[in-house]
Design a protein that fits this description.
About 55% of the residues lie in helices and about 10% in strands. With about 110 residues, it is mainly α. It has a domain at about 40-95. It has a 3-stranded antiparallel β-sheet with strand order 2-1-3. A hairpin with a 2-residue loop joins β1 and β2 (about 25-30). The two termini are about 30 Å apart.
């Protein structure tokens, strides 16, 4: 018999070569990428980063247009992307910090 393959603690999906640690409070829990992205702590951190950094970047890039009161639709679209970039970077770095190469490998101390 082959040993049981490790599964995601949240959804039960069989884990591949890469898994993600749930959090420091539950170090034995492993998650698939889809469940790791939905982690509340990771979402909160990414949202806060998005609000702070996105607002700074939007002010730097489009502040004069906002102050003049004339903001074309194109600028609103660019502003939306300006907020999405820091969210994505924060999410990516959070996942990278929780990444474990082999789900069945023992953790290093």
């Amino acid at each position: 018999m082959s040993p049981a393959k490790p599964a995601c603690a949240a959804c039960g999906r069989v884990l591949g070569r890469v898994a993600f640690q749930a959090d420091a409070e539950h170090p034995a829990d492993w998650h698939c990428v889809w469940c790791a992205v939905k982690a509340p702590r990771l979402q909160r951190t990414a949202s806060r980063t998005m609000l702070v950094v996105g607002t700074l970047l939007a002010g730097i890039n489009h502040g004069s247009q906002y102050l003049q009161g004339h903001v074309p639709v194109r600028v609103w679209a660019e502003t939306g992307l300006t907020y999405l970039v820091p969210y994505g970077v924060s999410m990516w770095s959070g996942l990278a910090a929780r990444r474990v190469r082999h789900a069945s490998a023992p953790r290093e101390s």
